[in-house]
Design goal:
The complex is a heterodimer. Chain A is α/β, with parallel strands linked by helices. Chain A has one domain: Rossmann fold (3-Layer(aba) Sandwich). Helices cover 44% and strands 14% of the residues of chain A. Chain A contains 8 helices and 7 strands, in the order E-H-E-H-E-H-E-H-E-H-E-H-H-H-E. Chain A is globular. In chain A, 52% of the residues are buried. By secondary structure, chain B is α/β, with parallel strands linked by helices. In chain B, helix 1 packs parallel to helix 5. Chain B has a single domain, classed as 3-Layer(aba) Sandwich (Rossmann fold). The longest helix of chain B is centred in the middle third of the chain and has 20 residues. Chain B has a 6-stranded parallel sheet, with helices on both faces. The chains are: A alpha/beta, B alpha/beta. Chains A and B meet through helix 5, helix 8 and strand 7 of A and helix 4 and helix 5 of B.
Chain lengths: 255, 189
């Protein structure tokens, strides 16, 4: 029997919001966490917090929509600590654009950050995991893939993430590698807090639990899915959305 | 007073032996067995109790019928301030072995819990754990792609995840603890 490799987690877009909460959670779960972000200061801030809390973490800057940058990032992680055993594809951009405003540039940007990045990071991580027969991936999808106003590009990218999650779950299962997705609903992040209170209340009508979720709710789900406690779970798309995914919106705008 | 883990039915198949005790221990709760789901309201402690109902265990033992499951679910739908997890077999997805009436009870359970999540979302959480038919002694040739055979600890982990502090924003969801079998069905994304 070989000894268990050091658990190493890589969280893309880990410098803020959901990614930061997942990074902190995996830090307290005993992973050496590599906090990826485009912004070194933000990533370093989260890594420092984890270290201050008694965990192990490092900041790593890379544009995950660039496959060469992704490969270089993984090379660095492997050289510094060891192969990634838990990958969280969290980096992404949101945005709200009616179809008439979805120009080629916008489409390409959304697809490359939200979907290409998942391919690049998963492909690179799995090239090692498949040999060691050890590891797990969690992709942050979105409830929005089911459909929402102004989300044609974002929903298409996140539907791509769901499809890739399920296909990789099947393809990697014989190697004992699990691939799951979390589809967050409305989560209390700076992104949502930028909206007016009135707009926020109007959005909450679509949530049976009538409140926003917290970034810790998403982090707890990621921690569970990446742990051995979820060893029988693969290909799951887990909606952490306060019941929004089972509801039909009662208050239709623009009609 | 301790939180109660209300459980039904009392008898579980061997594959799920000790499910209630293990889940209660991890949740810091005390097991209170129910002889029928309609007993829920009379056995509440006044604390924030939680309920685990293993629907298919009651069906395969002949303790209840699909029709009785449906009427028990409508009683549960009126129970306030109760977080619950129903455990159903994956036969409802489409099975080469599960009795049709039995599949229907699984689908009805999921449907009922989704409606509970919508109607009582501010006070209750209702989620489902879907497990392999084989756990109830149903010999299906269908299985998930993972080599691991689902065991009681996997089910305990899912139940405690959903009922504990990790699951507080999950409502109306189905967690598939099935080695990935659900993946092959269009009913499951």
């Amino acid at each position: 029997m070989s000894t268990e490799p050091t658990p190493v987690a890589l969280v893309t877009g880990g410098g803020a919001g959901i990614g930061a909460a997942i990074s902190r959670r995996l830090g307290s779960d005993g992973f050496h966490v590599f906090v990826n972000d485009l912004d070194l200061e933000r990533a370093q801030g989260v890594a420092d917090e984890i270290v201050a809390g008694g965990g192990a973490a490092s900041a790593v800057v890379a544009d995950v929509s660039d496959s060469a940058a992704v490969d270089a990032m993984f090379d660095r992680v492997e050289a510094e600590v060891g192969p990634v055993t838990a990958l969280v594809n969290n980096a992404g951009i949101g945005g709200n654009a009616a179809i008439r405003n979805v120009d080629d540039e916008y489409w390409t940007r959304v697809m490359s950050v939200d979907l290409d990045s998942v391919l690049y990071c998963s492909r690179r991580a799995l090239s090692v995991m498949r040999e060691s027969r050890h590891g797990s991936i969690v992709n942050i999808a979105s409830r929005a893939w089911l459909g929402w106003w102004g989300q044609s590009a974002y929903a298409a990218a996140k539907a791509g993430v769901v499809g890739m999650t399920r296909a990789l779950a099947v393809e990697m299962a014989s190697r004992n590698i699990r691939v799951n997705a979390i589809a967050p609903g409305l989560i209390d992040t700076a992104l949502l807090r930028n909206r007016s209170e009135e707009a926020l209340q109007r959005l909450l009508v679509s949530v049976p639990m009538a409140r926003l979720g917290s970034t810790e709710d998403i982090a707890a789900a990621a921690g569970f899915l990446l742990s051995d406690r979820a060893r029988a779970i693969t290909g799951q798309v887990l909606y952490v959305c306060g019941g929004k995914s089972v509801y039909a919106y009662p208050d239709w705008p623009d009609r | 007073m301790t939180t109660q883990l209300l459980t039904w039915p009392e008898r579980l198949p061997e594959s799920l032996d000790a499910l209630y005790e293990k889940a209660a221990e991890q949740l810091g709760a005390q097991v209170t067995p129910l002889t029928g789901l309609e007993e829920v309201s009379t056995r509440r402690s006044g604390e924030r109790d939680v309920l685990v109902a293993v629907i298919d265990a009651a069906l395969v033992s002949g303790q209840t019928t699909p029709a009785e499951v449906v009427s028990a679910l409508s009683i549960l739908a009126h129970e306030p301030d109760l977080d619950l997890v129903a455990i159903v077999s994956d036969g409802y997805i489409g099975s080469d072995a599960t009795d049709v009436g039995h599949s229907l009870a699984g689908a009805a359970t999921i449907s009922a819990l989704r409606s509970m999540a919508v109607r009582k979302g501010t006070t209750c959480r209702a989620n489902v754990v879907c497990v392999p038919e084989a756990m109830f002694g149903i010999a299906s040739t269908q299985r998930g792609p993972l080599a691991h055979t689902v065991d009681v600890d996997d089910v305990v982990a899912a139940v405690t995840f959903l009922l504990g502090s990790s699951g507080t924003y999950l409502n109306g969801q189905v967690l598939f603890v099935d080695g990935g079998r659900h993946l092959f069905s269009s009913m499951t994304a």
